Amino acid sequence: MNEWAARGPASDSPFARLTRWWAEEASIVERQVPFTVLYVIALLTLLLPAIAVPDPGLVAIGAVLVGLETAAAFALPWRRWPDWTLYVPPLVQMLAVGFLRVGTGGPASPFALIMVLPVVDLAARRGRRGVAVAAIGAAGIIAIPLVLGTTDTMITTILVVRAVFVPLVVLVVAYTVNGLTERLRARTETLATLRRMQDALLERMRADAVELARVAADRRASRDMLLSVFDAVTEQAIIAADEDGLVDVFNPGAEKLLGYARADVVGLMRLTDLHLRAELVARRAELFHEDGEVDNPRFLLEALVAPALAGRPEVRDWTYVRRDGSPITVRLAVTRRADTDPRSAGYVVVAADVTAERETDRLKERFVSLVSHELRTPIASVLGYVELLRDESDPLTAEQVGYLDVIERNARHQLRLVGDLLLTAQVRAGRFAVQRARIDLGDVVRASVQTAVPAAQAAGVELEAHTDPVVMIDGDAGRLAQAVDNLLSNAIKFTPSGGTVTVAVRRARGPIGQQQAEVQVTDTGIGIPPDEVTHLTEDFYRASTATRRALPGFGLGLAITHAIVTGHGGRLEVTSRVDEGTTFTMVLPAVTGSVRTSAPS
Fold first, then answer.
1. To 10 degrees, the CA torsion angle through 444, 445, 450, 456?
2. Which of 84, 138, 241, 498 is a good FRET partner for 288, with 20 to 30 A between their CA atoms?
3. Predicted local confidence at residue 503, as pLDDT
């Protein structure tokens, strides 16, 4: 598209069609047409009787030049030639005008004004070279009579004056036309650039509009799909609300949980209306250290959503009040619903009824505490009487001593089980405590290894220990001894006769250079399937490799060990291969120092 066509509808105006003949991108043929038409009209006027033709030969020469120049405009490949060749056609046109002028009376000829067309053609070209060529060409036309010798002296004098004055006039006109053309060309180029930019912007706007329509459709589809998912959930309450807590989504699970119909809640109730008010007030006082009743609904909402606003969503128990006024305990997750559109921002609440679960936990804790208390006392009494029997002055028979050993062994086993149950209950209730002191971890491990030697010998398992000279930590020696005892007991129990259990204690450095202490217990036993490793620290969980071999145990030892290690700020790592063995590693924070206390015996 050329720069004139780029101007749109205005390019169809008569002025645009006329100026297109001298536009920079116009062809030689387009530039030739106006001149040829006017020259033919001039030749036709010579047929009128009133027009004198003193020299028909010169007129014929001019006509031949125009004919040849017109044919050359159509036939020759001007676009492939250098730019200076484009000056030839208008110069030929000026020469043809000169012959027509001289042949029709010279100064008296009415056809001299046709010269304006090639002058304008030359002046309209880019740069100033066309202006100079036009002025020189005009001087040549005026000088033709002098060259041909067709005038007398007086006429020649006039011609000389004209040969000077007319080119000056042509020079001024050509210069003016050139300046106007340059400004018009610059304006046209600017308009064309702006039009291209406009077209590009329009195209971009169309693309953006299509993209926005697609995104809007996707968002509508996503929202519809999300709402359909919400509606498909019937066992959990999913409630969404705006920034002010006004409910705008209430799924069937919420209807089932709370007893409200969706139409009774959406747009009418707030999130806080579903909660026990006293609980919200207490939670706000806990978070913001404010006492007293809170009447502003926004303040109550902050008690519920404050962690989500702070970027750390929490899951905790709350009390909902059903439509019939009955309270239920729910496990509630509150998340922030952010969106680029402020009107779409708000909160999403997912609630699950845990009333029965919490009641079960409470009864379980009560049962464990009760059993621990009711069993510990009589077992301790049994062990006391065993000691009394051993201390009797009358000697016991070997059979009686064997009976007492069985009683003591089983009583101590039951006492350890009761202790494990009690410790598990303490961990669940958050009452597990660590009494810290500066100790050498190597002493703790060596004492546990010494205690485990009889069991290892009885099982036909070789027990090896490797410890660094001094590995100091701040820890509870009794609790850590219990953790190491559990790991050693498991390793010996799950290692077939002829296998090996290796215990190592060493200093190490953490990933950022901090001091660490590691206790590693490695066995060559039956191993654990990979998909079961992550469950080992769960209460009462036992690996399938142990249950298939009917190995004794209750599944509490590793859970207790994990709780002890975690309580010391450490971690318990497990690697295992079935039928090859297992490695448990206790990683604990270490300190440097020389103060030591005795490990438990």
1. 150
2. 241
3. 92
